[in-house]
Amino acid sequence: MADFELRHLRTMAAIAGEGTFGQAAARLGYTQSSVSQQVAALEKAVGGAVFDRPGGPKPVRITPLGEVVLAHGRELLTRAAALTDAVDRFRAGHGRIDIGTFQSVSNLILPVVIRRLLDEHPGCDIRLSDVPPEDPRIGELDLLFHDGPVDGDVERVKLFDEPYLLVTGEGAVPDGPVGVPVLDEAPLVAWPPTHHQRWLERTLARTGAQPRFVFRTTGHETILSMVRAGIGWAVLPWLALHGQDAWSDDQLAIHPLEPSPIRELSLYWPAGRTASPLGIRTREIAVDVARELAERMPAAAGADDSVRSRGTRGAGRRA
């Protein structure tokens, strides 16, 4: 069977509904000769007449072959309309996006990003997943927040440099920056030896401090509670303290560390994969939210160096 076009089926359906070629032409905005040409092309494609034409003002009659063609043609037209609608919705941002994340981002950055995204695209489908920091992989994710290199062929935008800060009880040490060596043998409350905690402890050791860990527990609020109780100090990332509004707590004092442990937060996406409009818009919103947060960070955090777009390709490369 020769090829035919969807417009031929639309024309046939219009004729069947209107009863005459002339009325179908008026409905579709075609000339009557154009309608006749399209029916002729369709009949050539299917190998037989789809309408009996009595002539004059009498309505045309659909043939048995025409009944078969029309029944299946309407199914094709319905599917084509659904496809067109899906493409239009995709272009408008009503698609699905899969985002990889970790705790600090999930608590403070992603809620703002998601809220703004849903305000703009209430029909979008957002899927979130925690990605192990020990082995971050982009896989089938559209976007991945991470604070280190990511294996694979990826691109990224740097969001900001986040400092770790010292948290003590009020008046425990003089106001202002504290040198890292002061933490040597100091009592510290900390996370269990997770990926991020092991990195922090290695960083402190390289700058002259091996604290005495008096309690390890999960959860930033629990750690701050132990600092309030006076069991020890803590070294926590800026995002965690900002999320807990620790600066307004009169039982706590927060001090910059010199030199400050800093982790670089970036947003990654697969290189070479065509991004959806929704993915592109999500990246834009994430950069805006990160810029707003970076403006609140201490100058030592490298806020002036934040939110620079840099593409990186290849395993583990930093921009």
Description:
- This protein is of the alpha/beta class.
- The chain is built from nine helices and 13 strands.
- The strands form three sheets. Strands 3, 4, 5, 6, 7, 10, 11, 12 and 13 form a nine-stranded mixed beta sheet that branches. A two-stranded antiparallel ribbon has the order 1-2. Strands 8-9 form a two-stranded parallel sheet.
- Strand 3, helix 5 and strand 4 form a beta-alpha-beta unit.
- Helix 5 crosses helix 9.
- The longest helix has 28 residues.
Q: How would the blueprint of this fold be written?
A:
Blueprint: H1 6-18, H2 21-28, H3 32-46, E1 51-52, E2 61-62, H4 64-91, E3 96-101, H5 103-120, E4 125-130, E5 143-146, E6 154-169, E7 178-179, E8 187-190, H6 195-206, E9 212-216, H7 220-229, E10 234-237, H8 238-243, E11 252-258, E12 262-270, H9 277-294, E13 309-310
Parallel strand pairs: 3-4, 3-5, 7-11, 8-9
Antiparallel strand pairs: 1-2, 5-12, 6-10, 6-11, 6-12, 6-13
Helix pairs in contact: 1-2, 1-3, 1-4, 2-3, 5-9
